[in-house]
Design a protein that fits this description.
The chain has about 140 residues and is of the alpha+beta class. The chain has one domain: Hotdog Thioesterase (Thiol Ester Dehydrase, Chain A, Roll). The protein is built from 2 helices and 8 strands, in the order H-E-E-E-E-H-E-E-E-E. It has a 6-stranded antiparallel beta sheet with strand order 1-2-6-7-8-5. A two-stranded antiparallel ribbon has the order 3-4. The chain is globular, with a radius of gyration of 14 Å. The relative contact order is 0.21. InterPro entries: HotDog_dom_sf, PAAI_dom, Thioestr_dom. Keywords: Hydrolase. Pfam families: 4HBT.
Length: about 140
């Protein structure tokens, strides 16, 4: 299956369809069955103790899978999360952006399953891992 949306097309889609989060994530790379997404960490993402909050990391993981699915199927705004498992493994650093490396494991007619590893920029060990399932709307 060929990639149907570029990084810029995904960003333009988000600006149109989800303007409330259009500046929260940057699609840096799109490839067959995967994407790389950056979340510029700001004060609003932090929790006490100087770490990035769980909800912020969930948002990054969720949007990364969404971007990967749309990159493969095209601009279908009604694709939705149906399941999520998120493991927090290390404390992300407050002064570093988060980088999500997403890979789709299955892309079917109705469901897509993907894995996301989240890193603090410049650090080799992941800070979180997510597995998500998305429901794909009918054509």
């Amino acid at each position: 299956m060929a990639v149907k949306m570029s990084a810029q097309e995904l960003m333009d889609f988000m600006a149109r369809e989800f303007p409330q989060v259009k500046n929260d994530f940057i699609v840096e790379d799109v490839r067959d069955m995967g994407v790389t997404v950056r979340m510029p960490v700001a004060d609003r993402h932090l929790r006490p103790g100087g770490t990035v909050s769980g909800p912020s990391m969930f948002g990054l993981a969720d949007c990364s899978i969404y971007f990967a699915v749309l990159a493969m199927i095209g601009p279908k705004g009604l694709a939705v999360t149906t399941n999520c498992s998120l493991d927090f493994m290390r404390k992300p650093e407050a002064g570093r952006d988060l980088i999500a490396e997403c890979k789709l494991l299955k892309l079917g007619r109705v469901l897509a399953v993907g894995d996301v590893l989240i890193y603090s920029e410049g650090k080799p060990e992941p800070v979180a891992r997510a597995t998500m399932t998305y429901s794909i709307p009918p054509n």
